[in-house]
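For the sake of clarity, the format in which proteins appear in this thesis is described at this point. Each number in the token line that follows is a code from a learned vocabulary of backbone shapes. One such record is shown here in full, so that the layout can be seen directly:
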Amino acid sequence: MPGRGDAGSWNRTASWRRLERVSVTGGSPDELAAAILELLGDPQRRREMGVCGVRATRARLSWNAVAAQVEELYREVSKGNAQSAAVEPA
């Protein structure tokens, strides 16, 4: 759907570089407020973050992705590798 996170309208590399700079690691309320204000002033960046978030969610939580994780878990358990069977989310 055009206008609702269509993947063809953004540059993945440029978007990821810009998104890396939006992190609040110190837990400071002032740092969080500054990051929010920065995003409020940049609608394009918010859109890019939304597109990236949807892509990441679909990649990790789609039926195909979850089925692949479950299949890998079953494969490991059936080999007797119970210790290595803990599948971490992608």
Notes: Confidence is low (pLDDT under 50) at residues 1-12. The chain is about 60% helix and 0% strand. The CA atoms of residues 24 and 33 lie 10 Å apart.
